[in-house]
Amino acid sequence: MTVLLIIAALLNGDVINASLLDAGPYERDGSLDNGIVGHEYGHGISNRLTGGANVANCLTNPTQMGEGWSDWFSIMLTMTADEDFETGRGIVTYSAGQSIDGIGIRNAKYSTDFGVNGFTYVDTNNTAGVSQPHGIGFIWATVLYDLAHAYVEKYGFDDDFYNGTGGNNRVMQVVIDGLKLQPCGPGFVDGRDAILAADMALTGGEDQCMIWEVFATRGIGLNASQGAAFSRTDQVENYAMPPDTDPSLANCTSLSVDEFDQSDYSIYPNP
Fold first, then answer.
1. Contact between residue 52 and residue 71 where contact means Cβ atoms under 8 Å apart
2. Which residue in 269, 97, 255 sits closest to 167, CA to CA?
3. CB–CB of 132/232 below 8 Å?
4. Residue 224, number of CB atoms within 10 A of its CB
5. Residue 256's pLDDT is what?
6. Burial class (CB in 10 A: 0-12, 13-18, 19+), 178
7. Residues annotated as part of the active site
8. What CA–CA distances, in Å, run from 196 to 62, 130, 223?
């Protein structure tokens, strides 16, 4: 891993895994691993947007999801039209010395198949098996991966990252807008609510039902609780959906619609 990439990781609070730095005579340069480059880039987005424009240190509470957004941005920026969401994929397989279909460096592959990745919100309480912050971020990114799958199923995939209007473009916009709307020191429920609010602002709520279904499936349903702000062990999962009579669900659609504000952000240059 090059010096510049190490500095970027340290500035973003990541712990450098020694095994990624020294692989003997066959060392793999981490700066050639898109998983790492995209991940570290993602920290710049989540740190600068969470809590508003005037603060950049809002992701310090025990259940903050910074590592999750970074994994997810990395996946989204390397996604192609043939993404197999059920088979899923590992993160940072190259630098870990694995094949492209390896498990990566998280608890499981990112996958919509519960037989491959069965992690849900309650697992954030598992201090023995789920690390902080990377393991907690992994569970958040798992939910976002499921969300990306739902959007791509509904709206298709567009390989134009700049001007596209496919499901991958739409989910990227709603997640980024959610970052702007969530409070400082967010938990999973805060993050869910911010994404729901972003969809209301973008589409009038056309994807509210779909977003709720994704979050509820992983235990972040209507009555889920993120507990105390600085506790790691009091998260309560729940699988309930809002009642059909909830006004926020009035505009839900099940089919793709053409009306969507095109993205006003760009991958380049750096934010």
1. no
2. 255
3. yes
4. 22
5. 62
6. buried
7. 40
8. 23, 27, 15
